[in-house]
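input
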Amino acid sequence: MIGGNTTALLQTKTATKNSIGEYTTTYTDLMTVKGWLDLNSTDSRYEPYNAHIKSSSHVLVCDYVDITANDTNLSALIDGKRYDVSYIDDPQGRHRQVEIYLDYVGE
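output
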């Protein structure tokens, strides 16, 4: 088990247009995962080879959960801060851990 130092609430994000044409975002709880949140550094000499990782600001590593059916329009709420999910990786397809790449969007 990976365990972790933080809990993330994964949510699906839906944008709807109201009567005056404004878009409003609604979040629906999907699942809670516990893992390790880390800032994603961009000083690697390998960064040109992985655009998904380079575009992310943080990575959350947690025990494997199947979220591939819901891997679009996901958001994560961690310690009151909102992140958009940019990429979900099951390294080598081994179903041992999930790496969720995140973009910080605010509180």
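quick obs: The chain is about 5% helix and 55% strand.
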